[in-house]
Amino acid sequence: MKKFLLFTLKILILTIVIAVALDFIYTAIYLQSSNRGKVDYVYNSKNKNYDVVILGSSRANNHFVAQIFEDKGLKTFNYGMSGGHLFEASLLLKLMMERDYKIKNVILEADLNLSNNHQAEGVSAKFLPYLHQSETVQKHFSNESDFLELYYIPFYRYIKFDSRIGFREMFFSVIQKRSAGLDNYGYYSLGKKPNGNMKNNIVNLKPLLHNQYYEEIKQICKSNKINFIAVMTPMCENTKGINYFKKVQKLYPEIHNYENVVVEDKYFSSCGHMNDTGARLFTARILKDFFNK
After folding, report:
1. Backbone torsions φ then ψ of 171, nearest 5 degrees
2. What gap in Å lies between CA 62 and CA 18, rounded to an integer?
3. What's the pLDDT tens digit per position in 97-107?
């Protein structure tokens, strides 16, 4: 029995040592990576200057053609993250401030993502390699239910989110394989033709009276003298519950409603996402309305 307990203890110690070593190696690699995605691109940078920074979900990532802003002489990057919520948008902006970014305007896509205060685990996982290095990341995750496990158990976060920050992603970071997410100033085109479902039902979706992360973004912009522009972006014609956007505007009158600026199906890739042609029409309208000077 004594030998068995001793053997078990040795195995436990060895497992902990290996976990600590792997955690250190993975983290060290991510701290040198800046071309795999928008999170490491921001985290491993400093003192960037932008006229326009775009934040939001895929409805920002696919809807704002950053090149058009650039062509007008506005230094721009689309930091919209597909699948992301305002939880991640707020944290990304906090990291920009931590990294001494100078930003004149923030355009925030704030519509469907106002309906929740939750993190999008697949997207938020991209911040976890920096959990011990960044007080900003640590504070942002501190109220999450799994924070203690992620913070104190070595290598746990890399195992739990293996598909996002595990071996494959770590290996691509080692060989410095650039992600397409950083091309086109962060804008991701969905092509020029419809290829998805042109019906949507958002009847049960309700905007929160107080969205914590939306308010955080507003406050960060105010504190850093950044011009804050919040907009709702278009959806296809066959959307049930389209009055959701009116509900948003009633709760948040400062958010500009552009839901019906582009409506025909030919301008959409799927009901909630415009194709490249629609995105260019929409982007041109935003430039005209907010940057005409």
Report:
1. -65, -45
2. 41
3. 999 999 999 99
- Contact predicate 60/80, CB 8 Å: yes
**What would the two tokens of residue 87 be?**
């939880």
Tell me the residue type at 60: A
Does position 195 have pLDDT exceeding 80, yes or no?
no
CA 22 to chain centre: 27
Q: Using pLDDT thresholds of 50, 70 and 90, give the confidence band for residue 293.
A: low
Whole-prediction pTM value? 0.94
CA distance 78 to 248: 23
